[in-house]
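Pasting as-is:
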Amino acid sequence: MREEKTEAMHIDWDALAAVCATSLTVVILLVGAFSFGLAALTRPRKEQPSGAGRTGTADVPAKATAVLCFAICAALACYGIVLIVSQSR
């Protein structure tokens, strides 16, 4: 009969902990940036002086903040995809 060599599986716990810590940090940043962007878009609008009620669009600084936050989210997502694709080659 033929003898088969089996090697025990080795887990690099330091690398696993680094991946978990990095993943947790990026997820917190991603969720925080997205939430901050939504909060900037939905913040109360200024009332019209004529008493017509609230304006239909958010303030310019609020929109700029929301766009910046959503751009950060998109950049993090794209970077994650790039990392996954580069490791699969």
